[in-house]
Structures are given as structure tokens and as C-alpha cells.
Amino acid sequence: MKTPVSGLAPGFLVALPQMRDANFAQAVILMVEHGDDGAMGLIVNKPLPLPDLRDVSLTHDIDLDAHIEDLRIFQGGFVEAERGFLLHDNPALPESVQILPGLYLSGSVDSLRATLSGEQSARFRLCLGYAGWAPGQLEKELCEGCWLPTEAEARHVFDTPSEQIWNAVLRDIGIEPGRLLHGCGLQ
Questions:
Q1: N or C, which end of the chain has less CB nearby within 10 Å?
Q2: How far is residue 171 from each of residues 41, 100, 137, 177, 178, measured CA to CA in Å?
């Protein structure tokens, strides 16, 4: 896994009403990489209806810790949808890469096992798949007004309920979500 590069990473991309792809409606993406070779991020506010962490623990033969309350898995994106990414707050987990202060990324089964079994304590969010852009593609979408880049904060990944992240991030930068209009910006 590459370490984050400059540009829009690390940061959030907030989908604006101009976003034509319904899969990204009101999405908030944590940008992990952005550079000349393209960009990669994880949607942090779209829980999947199925599977849940019990399914993942059975698939990987992991004894699921009874104290894990959030059994949801999140749609990280539509590229390599079977690949898992663990966002967490424990730098001691295997193959952890710091994205932001208090927010790390790991793609290893060892990190998943340590977290789900309770062997290592961590607040976490498991995302399947990722959002990816070819060189220049994201910049084009930014020019079209599809995304609003902003500073990312770990608290929105771990502490804000997923259904409130889009509104909360917009309000943090002084935008009232109800005032956004499709194709027109603010009213």
C-alpha cells in the first residue's frame, strides 16, 4: 500500500447535488491518495445492507468479539468491491498507515483478525472496495462542480453517525445542506 501523497489527500470529498452518478449521491469520501497517477479514496458514510461483520468473521475464521457493537460494513467504493480496507485508530495494528492524526488505514487480514477478535482494541470502520480515478479524471469532476474538497477529521469517521456525516461535514465549513441546489450552488 502506498503512503498518502499531496494534493487532495488526505481530505474529504463531499458530493454536491451536481453529481450525476447516483452511487455517489451525498457521499463523503476520505481521500487516501491523489497525485499524477490518479486518486483513491474510501466512502465513509454508505453502510451496506449485507453482509455484516459476522459474515466476514466466519469467512476468515475469526472469533468475533462479543463487545463489537457496530456490525455494519461500509461501501468503500465500486472498484475491487471484494477488497477490504480497515479504517481505525490503533497504530499498533499490522500494516497501519497514518492518514490523519488518530486515523489509520490497513488492508491486512491480520489487522482485521486482531480487531474483530478483540485482541487489539480499536474504533474502526470496515470498507469494501474503493473509489478510484484515472489521471485527470477527478480534476475534471472537480471543475464540473461534482465534488467539494475539504479538510478531513477522524471524528467524522468514528463519532458521527453515518447518515449524518454529509450534513455535518458541510456544516463544518459553513454550508447549510438544505441551501444547496442542483446545478446552481447555494441559494
A1: C
A2: 21, 20, 27, 7, 10
Cβ neighbours for 70, distance < 8 A, ≥ 6 positions apart: 53, 125
Separation of alpha carbons 101 and 59, rounded Å: 31
Q: Which amino acid is at 53?
A: L
The dihedral built from the CA positions of residue 120, 112, 37 and 19, taken in this order, carries a sign that is negative
pLDDT tens-digit series, residues 41-50: 999 999 998 7
Return the DSSP state at 146: -
In order of their start, the domains of the chain are 11-186 (3.40.1740.10)
Find the farthest-apart pair of alpha carbons in the chain and give their distance in angstroms, rounded: 52
Among 48, 69, 6, 15, which residue's Cα sits nearest to residue 182? 15
Dist CA 121 CA 110 (whole Å): 14
Predicted confidence (pLDDT) per residue in 131-164, tens digit: 999 999 999 999 999 999 999 999 999 999 999 9
What is the C-alpha to C-alpha distance for residues 86 and 125, in angstroms, rounded to an integer? Answer: 6
Q: What is the pLDDT of residues 88-118, one digit of tens each?
A: 999 999 899 999 999 999 998 899 888 888 8
